[in-house]
Design a protein that fits this description.
mainly alpha; 11 helices; 242 residues
């Protein structure tokens, strides 16, 4: 698994993908947080990182699929996937190696945003007047969300040898699983089942973590979602050997 992980990381670092993705993410969030009047924290009148944590998931919906779309699709198109599967590696070692390399890049892209927290901490009146527990919980939620989106992107990449198709599938699945269930639950036809339907979506659990409460049920949900997507990826790879 480590060899696959190292290969993918080196592939990212030796291409423009990693640098472009991280730069676009930081530029987008930076503009939304500090520059654009509609979302600028300087317009709020109080120290808050709500812009990052509310709009960050939607930026992730496009950037993470851009990272993962090539992972299996490129291997399929070039014919190296069959060669990789003949190596003394299990399907799970290949999947996890690729998954953790993408997940690491997502986490790495979030690290510079800590500067935003420090800036708001200093700008608070008095200094430090910011909901640190809420920020910490939101960071945990955003990292876990990145893990789920990475697993979704990996699954989408395993379904097609066309990177654009993989990208579109991943964006669609990320959007549906993130906010689709909440929107569907808002339709006044479900009655007492509307809450249960909403809880199937990622947004419900992400919002809970954003309040600073690290409930084990939310953590289990995110881990389960990522695991299910990785299992589906494993099924797709397994089917290629039948």
């Amino acid at each position: 698994m480590f060899e696959v992980f190292k290969k993918e990381v080196n592939s990212f670092l030796n291409s423009l993908i990693a640098y472009v993705v991280i730069s676009v993410f930081l530029l987008s969030i930076g503009l939304l947080t500090w520059v654009f009047p509609e979302t600028s924290v300087l317009e709020y009148g109080f120290a808050s990182m709500e812009t990052l944590f509310s709009l960050g998931p939607y930026v992730f919906m496009f950037l993470i699929p851009a990272i993962t779309m090539r992972m299996f699709a490129e291997e399929k198109k070039s014919g190296t996937l069959e060669l990789l599967l003949t190596q003394p590696l299990t399907e799970w070692q290949i999947i996890l190696g690729k998954y953790f390399s993408g997940f690491m890049l997502v986490i790495f892209s979030l690290v510079p945003t800590i500067i935003y927290y420090y800036s708001l901490y200093q700008l608070g009146n008095p200094v430090g007047n910011i909901d640190t527990a809420g920020v910490a919980g939101s960071y945990v939620g955003l990292i876990l969300l990145g893990g789920v989106f990475t697993a979704i992107g990996l699954f989408a990449s395993s379904m097609s040898e066309n990177q654009i198709v993989s990208f579109i599938i991943a964006v669609f699945l990320c959007f549906i699983l993130y906010s689709g269930f909440g929107s569907l639950a808002a339709v006044d036809v479900w009655g007492q089942f509307s809450l249960a339907l909403e809880q199937l979506g990622i947004l419900y659990h992400y919002n809970s973590l954003s309040k600073g409460l690290l409930d084990s049920r939310n953590l289990i949900y995110f881990i389960s979602m990522a695991t299910i997507m990785l299992m589906l990826t494993h099924l797709v790879l397994k089917s290629r050997k039948w």
